[in-house]
Amino acid sequence: MKKTAILMSFISFGISYSCAENSKSTANLNDMEQNCRYKLLFNALMTPDSLRTAEDKAILQKAEVLVYEGYMVENGRLERTFGKVDLRKRGILEVYYDAAQKDVDVLNNYLDTTSVFLRDQMLEAFMKSRKEYFAGKDSLQLE
Known about the structure:
The chain is mostly helical. The protein is built from six helices and two strands, in the order αααββααα. Helix 1 packs antiparallel against helix 2 and helix 1 (2-24) packs across helix 5 (94-113). The protein starts with a helix and ends with a helix.
């Protein structure tokens, strides 16, 4: 449950950023495609587990790979652990990578300007969720 909350928070930053950026510029096909893919991800997050389709589950699994395997905490900030080429090998579209990087930039700016207590709480929650993600992934591989 907490993993979903962390993932949802991460995506929410991106949606608000994406909407703000989109309203500043004229809509073109790339923006529309990116927003459509981003909305698919957001909708998958908002759908209750019991109602998720196979497509929703696949989107969320790729989002988890991107968030939990693609970023780690370093010096009080989220830092990338791999690039676009690595994501393509894992079947993750570049549009998600670009959106996630924008989200992380916004989040890092927030972490830089917030209190140490709040920053530490957010990063601890991310690290705990990341640890749970890898523990669950390891247990699935043992089955």
